[in-house]
Amino acid sequence: MSTALALCIAATGAAFGLWQLVQRRRTLRRVNAMLDRAIAGGFAEDRFDESELSAVEGRLARFLRGSAAARKTAESEQAAVKSLIADISHQTRTPLANLVLYASLLSESELDPGQRAQVETISVQAEKLSFLIRELVKASRLEAGIVAPTPGINPVLPLMEDAAAQARGAAGNKRIELTVEGVDGEALFDPRWTGEALFNIVDNAVKYSPEGGSVAVTAQMLDSFCRIDVADSGPGIPESEQAGIFDRFYRGAGTGAVDGLGLGLYLAREILARQGGYIRVRSRVGEGSVFSLYLPR
Fold first, then answer.
1. Residue in 220, 198, 225 with CA at minimum distance from that of residue 296
2. What does the alpha-carbon distance between residue 165 and residue 38 come to, in Å, rounded to a whole number?
């Protein structure tokens, strides 16, 4: 009798285990079907009971409805941003061009020294305002996805030489030795956008290096990245400020004497990030700075 009971219990347990396995497989198949419909955009609740699976369907439906609403809101906001950027770019172009033009015409007139100084101030400030709006529009277009880098495999050395060539005039005015030591390798980047990012770094290096200083642009190939270093002989960046220098409009405590808007490093970081790269800084006060741009290979 005990043997028969044991066999009965064993058979019951095996049957129960088999039933659980079948149920689990059915549940997994149903969950997979739910996820497939959700991915395809055609999910709808079709089970209305008190089972856990029905509860999961309900939560998934609520999540998808919320995601769809959030996506529509984001798309609407992005469209509004695109329109605003286009309006700003269009509406400010003509007034700024007129300011610069008439300031230039006034400077050619017969003026006393006081008036000439005032005209020069207007001209300088108009140029600064024009530059600020261009950079703001550029950053906003990049953030909103209106424009985006299109990286491809390109040689690294021409990128470095072009950025240095743009900065040689300013470097020569300060008697700064600007050198380039590149490599023959290639990396994945958009030449136009990445060239702008690298120039921003080189331009900053020239700005913050003293008269007669030096700026070196070098590169080396790593396993996964090409690293471009821009080393300057400037005053260095305090450790307490290094975390904020890539933020928009950030200006360090000791940078007041140098012209700038606080957008160059921010744009460089954004441009690199949108191509799978990144930027780092190493610096000590009194020992200059080294900015390293990492481009995927």
1. 225
2. 53
Q: Mean pLDDT in runs of 10 for the chain (297 residues)?
A: 64 64 69 69 61 69 71 67 65 78 83 84 80 75 74 94 93 94 90 92 92 94 94 90 81 65 83 92 91 95
3-state SS track over 117-170: HHHHHHHHHHHHHHHHHHHHHHHHHHHHCCCCCCCEEEEHHHHHHHHHHHHHHH
CA 233-239-242 angle, to 5 degrees, is 80
Q: 153 to each of 177, 187, 220, how far by Cα in Å?
A: 30, 5, 16
Q: Could you please report the per-residue DSSP string of 67-128?
A: HHHHHHHHHHHHHHHHHHHHHHHHHHHHHHHHHHHHHHHHHTS---HHHHHHHHHHHHHHHH
Nearest to 230 by CA among 253, 212, 255, 207: 207
86 vs 137: CA distance, rounded Å: 8
One-letter amino acid for residue 48 of the chain: F
